[in-house]
Amino acid sequence: MSDTQRRPFAVVTGGSNGIGFELARHFVENGHDVLIAAEDEGHLTQAASRLTEAAGRLSAGGGAVTIHAADLAREDGVAGLYAAIRAAGRPVDALCVNAGTGLGGPFAETDLARELRMIDLNVRGAVQLTKLVLRDMVARDAGKILFTSSISAAMPDPYEAVYGATKVFLRWFGEALRDELRDTGIGVSVLMPGVTETNFFNRAGMLDTKVGASEGKDDPALVAEAAFEAMQAGRDKVVPTLKNKVLSAVTDALPDKVAAQIHRRMAEPGSAG
Predict the structure, then answer these.
(1) Which of 149, 155, 154, 151 has the alpha carbon at shortest distance from 167?
(2) How far, in Å, CA of 210 to CA of 220, rounded?
(3) Which of 4, 105, 121, 181 counts the most CB atoms within 10 A of its CB?
(4) Residues 227-248: what's their mean pLDDT?
(5) Where does 7-267 sit in CATH, by number?
(6) Cβ contacts of residue 166 below 8 Å, gap of 6+?
(7) What angle is formed at CA 179 by the lines to CA 174 and CA 180, rounded to 5 degrees?
(8) What is the pTM of this model?
């Protein structure tokens, strides 16, 4: 049996940067071959080079990295990714449904096309890919799935109304699948990161908000490490760092109106000043 056939195989969407890249790095460094998928082929190529370098620094050798560029907000983009997965000729041992985007601002003023695309990527694409890969996992009664939700799923999200709703969907979608699959060999975990040092706030147009301008954001490497460990341990949900655990517990316990005000103060445009 070849090394490729012996190594487990992981697929990470949104794997070219941020939390997704760090998730891919953890898999590579723990002996997995990894396929990373995102829209920009140039970014994927750069990420694959960095991941390959990380694997090469390991004395025992890490896994191999392949890329697939596709627009996962499109049905044909997800179908193309699944075709690439099948073409690898190997079962998916771990699937990280991590690709996503955000948009901040008053809902009455934000761009509808961007919000519909957000729903297509964060929700519809996640459901489509999960359905396709999960059927294969069920057929062999083995596999692990991680959904990247957000601490935003613990409260109403003024000024991120659509983004927050997509993350609520992913939280409870993952938890529901976990229960459906509880008597199988398939594990499902939900990652609920807090404010993390990625390009998210820039892309979401939220650099002028209190949360976007805040210092002390979480390191995506530490977030990914917590997620990787949770997957391996079969835990249902992971909220990285103590401050986020406290915030999640508090907002879950508060009346929705109060929790919404907490988020409003953080995400309101101009609140950074």
Answers:
(1) 149
(2) 20
(3) 121
(4) 92
(5) 3.40.50.720
(6) 100, 118, 119, 122, 123
(7) 95
(8) 0.94
